[in-house]
């Protein structure tokens, strides 16, 4: 399917049709209409070239963000457009918002993070994670957890310290800890150089992993989605090793964090 979408300038994808009404008086966009009705209202999904970029179309109409902006992607993000189109194609009967991670992160970038003021607010919010960063809080028991911390956290902290010339403290208690102000200032300057696409990816990855350092390493392509997920879930993996996996809990979390991190890294693709 991806190949057909990429090769055809005006691909049409056959889908099943389910009609529904939208609440009267509500401003309608393709996205918020679907969210309001939770039912598929479109027949066909496509990707078209438009205004030196790409749009995803539902029944030949350009998909819009929740704020009503056209979901227009630049020429170097054709793959992203394809992934967004595939998400909507895969909504066969009832809309599943959790299955639209690419649509939501693209919309976030376009609706909010295109403005410097908004990026500044997000930047400030993300830097607050540094004092409680997941990978800065070590435990000395049990041994399997210690081994996982060493394997997945130590290299990330070393990379961040060296790459950005910063000091990052590691803690053994969650009480009364904070990172140096100079570190925060340097990382703030790093984030200030991010485009709205990079900031959207950084925001999602930080929220998913509860770690600014893991998110930064992912956005900078130092680690993969799998490595980022493992670093964020070290304690969970340690528990699974000791006690086994809890069905419909660990496995759901496993797939969700990969979905979130995968959408973040795919947003940064240039293809």
Automatic annotation (TrEMBL):
Keywords per UniProt: Chaperone, Mitochondrion, Transit peptide
Give the location in the cell.
Mitochondrion
Task: List this protein's GO terms for biological process.
Answer: mitochondrial proton-transporting ATP synthase complex assembly
Q: Name any one Pfam family assigned in the record.
A: ATP12
A GO cellular-component term linked to this record? mitochondrion
Q: Which family does it belong to?
A: Belongs to the ATP12 family.
Q: Which PANTHER family match?
A: ATP SYNTHASE MITOCHONDRIAL F1 COMPLEX ASSEMBLY FACTOR 2, ATP SYNTHASE MITOCHONDRIAL F1 COMPLEX ASSEMBLY FACTOR 2/ATP12 PROTEIN, MITOCHONDRIAL PRECURSOR
Query: Mind telling me what this protein is named?
Result: ATP synthase mitochondrial F1 complex assembly factor 2
Native species: Tetrapyrgos nigripes
